[in-house]
Amino acid sequence: MSRTLTLHVGYALILLLGALFVGLLAALAYLFPDLGAQLPFVQLRPMHVSAALFWIITGATAGVLHYKREVFAQPREPFAERAFVLLWVATTVSVFIFYAFRRFGGREYWEFPPLLGIPIALAWILLLVSYLRSWTRRPRPAPLYVWMWTTGVVFFMLTFLEQNLYHIPWFRQSFLREITVQWKSNGAMVGAWNQMIYGTALYLMVRISGDEGIARGRKVFLFWFLGLSNLMFNWGHHIYNAPTAGWIRHVAYGISMAEWIFFLDIIRGFKAKLAEKRKYDHLLTYRFLVASELWVFLNLVLALFMSIPAVNRYTHGTHITVAHAMGTTIGINTMILLGSFSWLLRMDQQGDRVVRQARLGARMALIGLPMLWFSLIAAGVLKGYRSVALGMTDHQELMEPVDQVLLVFLAGGVVVLAGLGTIAITYLGVLLRGARSRGIS
Amino acid sequence: MFALYTVLVYKGPDHVGTEPPDARVLAGMQQWQEQNCQSCHQFYGLGGYMGPDLTNVTARRSEQLIRTFIRYGTGRMPAHDLTETEIDELVVFLRWVNASGSSQVPDSAVHWTGTYILER
Q1: What is the structure's pLDDT at B24?
Q2: Cβ within 8 Å of B, A 409-438
Q3: How many domains is chain A built from?
Q4: Which domain holds residue B63?
Q5: What CATH code is carried by the domain that includes residue B48?
Q6: Mean pLDDT along residues A107-116
Q7: Which of A159, A241, A396 to mutate to test the interface with B (most CBs of B within 10 A)?
Q8: In this predicted structure, what is the pLDDT of residue B17?
Q9: What is B13-63 written as a DSSP string?
Q10: How far does B23 lie from chain A, in Å, by closest CA?
Q11: With b meaning 16 or more CB within 10 Å and e meaning fewer, what string describes A89-127?
Q12: Residue A384 counted as domain residue
């Protein structure tokens, strides 16, 4: 493992630890506002959100850049990729420094001063240029994971630029345009990093099974095309209740319903999956990938219901949205990234104690995550019922029973922190020992 | 196709015909972002859930009450050390947001197909 990849993976794991720890503090600040002076929610929330977001993007790019070099048979690490990692790390660290000094100025999920968007864009341009230059070395015809990585890298750039269009005055001439463009870009950006991460999951499944066929063929490309359509068009559920043009809502609703095809395919492939599980279950990477598939299923069910406007009316603006976000970021993205890092660090070749420790962490995380997820859904159902069906408008009165349910969420958060924290620390230990043995300090 | 769709999405809200923001509204929007209000509050259900959705707060609460909330805070909301002009700008911005529409979808807007038909 090169010096750059060591930094890339190590920094991603530190971000994961930071997201977990600050997330717990933010949950405490939310539930016990009397602690406001010691735990200011207004600072902790953006720190948690940015750390989680950067963990996913950093982890996704670490996988894409490393595996791409294997697939494209690139013997050397291009300079632009090293420059990307350094600029990315320096800029995202600066974001937390700004938060620590209460310097905001951005918008939801990207709440840091907008000037920091410039080095982020520059870093991504370095990554994009390097990636596209090496693309000429791709195997032909290219397997699906290469297409997924490519669309992810390109769409991230497009959506990041779109997210910053609000600096052009015309985009602020209408509040509905402002909010529509903001959520179009945010929604599609999630799709962009999902493409990078799912591409990595597919690549790892090919490596584990030795069957290149699962990344080729008409059916897998058809499913990818459906996923890509969702990336581009299904973000509309974020703004169903905003009175913008009705067709935006109808298109998003229609495209989202195509996800039933994924749902039915998961059910259909369940038996084959069980046989596959018996074959590869001894591999840590495989276990993480299977865990992510379970969460794909659960989140798909939730997403399908949230995408029906008549149901969204009750779920929008409630903790059900948070359940979906956490189910996706922890249950799917984090599980795949931990599987990817397990592969990179050759975890299955480490000593018994290390593997046992990582497995224990995975078990704890898979106990804590359902607690977190179902409590958020219960809180969301309560809030939706009280605000829409009962028409309650007093926020304090509305939230009273909801906050009680969120105590279970807090307990789930502690277990998830313990589980994922154990894995991250175990991985960091392996990474540092490996770096020391190769003389990297 | 995606490029055409994107242009149409950008033009989509044009039919609503709200007033474009003046300098005070834009200054209020800037305050909203610099104070990181979205960490706790939502517009059209988007944002943090610590506090209430503020899309139509100027229609529900008096301006005096809103100004008091901003200046002194409440149980969960911290006090904000802002000048009178900055508070004015925030209130003007909230009024502009309120004019863009209602964040609550009425029962009558739900169509049998499961979608909404929203009319302004």
Answers
A1: 96
A2: none
A3: 1
A4: 21-109
A5: 1.10.760.10
A6: 93
A7: A241
A8: 63
A9: GGGG-PPPP-HHHHHHHHHHHHTTGGGT-EETTEE-SSS-B-TTHHHHS-H
A10: 11
A11: bebbeebbebbeeeebbbbbbbbbeeebbeebeebbebb
A12: yes
With CA atoms as reference, report the closest residue to A102 among B4, B33, B107: B33
Is residue B118 in some structural domain?
Answer: no
Query: What number is the average pLDDT over the span A204-212?
Result: 89
Confidence of residue B15 (pLDDT cuts 50, 70, 90): low
Residue B105's pLDDT is what?
Answer: 87
Cβ atoms of A123 and A84 within 8 Å: the answer is yes
Number of domains in chain B: 1
Nearest Cα residue to A183 out of A118, A249, A121, A102? A249
What tens digit of pLDDT does each residue of B69-88 get? 999 988 788 899 999 999 99
Q: Does B73 fall in a domain?
A: yes
The residue range of the domain holding A395 is: 310-441
B70 belongs to a structural domain: yes
How many whole angstroms separate alpha carbon A379 and alpha carbon A362? Answer: 26
Residue A321: the pLDDT is: 94
Residue whose entry in the numeric block shows the structure tokens 């399908």: A304
- Across the interface, which of A41, A242, A245 has its CB nearest the CB of B15? A245
Chain centre to alpha carbon of residue B10 = 19
